[in-house]
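Reviewer 2 asked us to include a model.

Predict the structure of this chain.
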Amino acid sequence: MKVLKVNQPASGGIAMGSAYLYQPKERKIADYRVSSEEADKEIERFEAAVLKAAEELSVLAGENPIFAAHLEMVKDVTLQEAVTGKIKGEGNNAEKAVVLACEELILLFEAMEDAYMKERAADIKDIRERLLSQLTGIVNKPVSCGKDSILIAPDLTPSDTSSLDLNKIRGLITRDGGVTSHVAILAKSLSLPALVGVKEILSEVADGDYLILDGYNGEILINPTEEEKQKYHELIKKHKEAEQRIKAEESLSSITLDGREVHLCANVGNIEDIKKAVTSHIDGIGLFRSEFLYLGSSHFPTEEEQFEAYKEAAVTCSREITIRTLDIGGDKTLPYYPMDKEENPFLGFRAIRISLQEKELFKIQLRAILRASAFGKIRILFPMIISLEELRAAKAAVRECMEALNTADISYDETIQTGVMIETPASVLCAEELAKEADFFSIGTNDLTQYLLAVDRGNSKIAALYNSFHPAVIRSIRHVTESAHKYGKKAGMCGEFAGNEKATELLIGLGLDELSMTASLISGVRYRIRRMKYEAARKLAEEAVNKATVSEIMELL
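Predicted model (structure tokens):
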């Protein structure tokens, strides 16, 4: 028996069955030059393909919100202008133009450091294949395998995953992808055990090998003994009983045994994410990544375009919504906003620094958010703050926008709260001063861990050093929560760490008032909170901040 391990399981559960290796066939497309006279005909072919693809996606969107997002993307002018430009301006045929235009967008997303943003490249790949199917008339056959199979593939598109026969497939393993990939998201929604980013899987497993996929501990057992099989059969039975208990409590409040309530919220990037999240009994949206409005457009979104999006968000979710102002730069760039090449982009011109320099663009977004606040409970979150001066400048911009709306007699929530995203060492060290003037804190552990530890998450050679259980991170979280509470303010967390069930008791003990995460993780975290005592968690946290190493903290937990 051989065992493979991965650091971050994508979807919990245990699957047992035979390995089925799926290798999608590479699509061959026509590649020829077209004259200016022929270009119009090629554009007509492309536009017809878009209409047919939209019809398909309209049907699929009713079954899964991922395809609702694809429907918006396939109709978006950004993609259409890029393709027509490749045809008319560069003389490519329709198929080649689709490939080239999509490749540019894929590279844009794949270059981003943020895991959620990086995985959006899969959306573009799926749309590309759908458009090429319409242009060529050749449709890839759905995945077909035997009963009780564990599907293994280099990667799977949303369309591949949605076509799986769940009566036959027990689990998924992919070589590529991350925990925010569509494979992971869909697997969670289908309660299908899954591991992604298992680099050695295709070389270590042969077709027909018997596998045990442990999605809880991130392990793959290859050709296990009968004793191991029996052990896992018992584990499956126990986990099913536990899942039923968790499901029975998913609509209850997140209150500890000694009465401390913690708000559990969802991180989202668009309206479709919100529609899906509200079905998970959330207490609100803890992080709305507004940059998706910008990344999915061919121009800076107008005030009206942003207002409509934020208004729809407020109407869709009747609970509190925290909208983060534009967070580009670093790993997120806009094709219509040229930026100078920087040696250290994560330390460069990004987030609030861009907003405070591009003041009019900032005010357009702020006015749109303020107008939308008349339709629901909205908060404004400023990213990448490092000083009290920046917070004051951002709040001054909000006041200027309020005055403009007052003059125009336009309604907004005059009590709207403005908060600071704690994601830099400077904001941690200045937390007490910031807490005096901010209405709330939201800790972004993804960047905070990276900056505190000086570890580039994208560098595979040092990726193992990136760990939010590091004493420096844990002590920083405690300092931030204590600073917020000293001035009667709330402190939440919206990084990936918030959804880590191994950290739940520790985070509650550190004093966090709100945890915001991928919606599918909320029920498990809620279940844990309802079985812990805050006083015991507080004592555990006090011990943890005095530990000197990650291993000591993990041993304590």
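Residues 263-556 form a domain with the TIM Barrel fold (CATH 3.20.20.60). Residues 36-61 form the longest helix (26 residues). We have added this to the supplementary material.
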